[in-house]
Design brief:
Blueprint lengths: L4 E7 L6 H11 L4 E8 L3 H12 L5 E5 L5 H11 L4 E4 L11 H9 L5 E5 L13 H18 L11 E4 H4 L11 H11 L4 E5 L15 H16 L1
Parallel strand pairs: 1-2, 1-4, 2-3, 5-7
Antiparallel strand pairs: 4-6, 5-6
Helix pairs in contact: 5-8, 7-8
Length: about 230
């Protein structure tokens, strides 16, 4: 794999999982890569872990924000900094397994896709942790609305595992600072008529006690963003 891959990791208070994630990426992702972490106003313990990971060459670039701006803002800063031909969004909490990254990149390398979404609802050989029913319902509603508005048959619009040709994602004028960036990206790319692809990925979801951050308000923000960027 000759293409440079930019792995963009937004991070907010992930002292439990962050170092494990970066070591896993170092272990399994042997292709040419740069790892860009955006510290989105994390606590002092997370900052110390980030510093240690830098010292151990597990990170190529750290963007430090002065406060918590939100996932969308952090991703936008990472996109601006990325130098690779392919960009990967990787959450910092190990809900998504870096073992799946290679198969997410392959459709782009094979020129089958401009964008690849890692779907939690397509069969994979690792199984899934079973968690909140209403989260699944919310995801189904948001994905269905997305499909109606874009006429594209997504199975998991809200997935945190997304891969892009750099030329495609850098060309978007992204605005959202929150989790609303997921529907914003999807709608704007659909309007550009890029080639989408989905690949089944494993998913080890967390409880709120374990640090899960998405809330009910983000469901309504996502609906607003879908309508805003598709219709208005």
């Amino acid at each position: 794999m000759d293409n440079m891959i930019s792995i963009i990791i937004p991070c907010f208070n992930e002292k439990i999982f962050l170092e494990k994630l970066l070591k896993k990426i170092d272990q399994v992702c042997k292709f040419q890569k740069e790892i860009i972490l955006i510290d989105d106003g994390s606590d002092s313990q997370t900052k110390e872990i980030i510093k240690n990971c830098q010292n151990n060459n597990l990170l190529n670039e750290v963007i430090t924000l002065d406060k918590n701006y939100g996932k969308g803002y952090a991703l936008r800063k990472g996109i601006e900094k990325a130098k690779g031909e392919i960009l990967v969004f990787q959450d910092s909490d190990l809900e998504y397994d870096p073992d799946d990254m290679k198969k997410l990149i392959e459709p782009i390398l094979d020129n089958k896709a401009d964008v690849v979404y890692g779907s939690r609802f397509i069969s994979n050989d690792k199984g899934q942790r079973i968690l909140y029913y209403w989260h699944r319902v919310a995801n189904f509603i948001l994905t269905t609305i997305t499909n109606i508005l874009t006429n594209i048959n997504f199975s998991d619009m809200e997935t945190g595992y997304k891969v892009f040709k750099a030329s495609v994602i850098k060309d978007l004028d992204l605005k959202e600072d929150s989790f609303g960036i997921e529907p914003e990206i999807t709608v704007k790319l659909a309007r550009k008529k890029v080639k989408f692809y989905e690949v089944g990925v494993s998913y080890n979801g967390r409880t709120y006690q374990e640090g899960k951050k998405i809330m009910l308000k983000d469901f309504f923000i996502a609906i607003y963003c879908l309508i805003k960027y598709r219709i208005f």
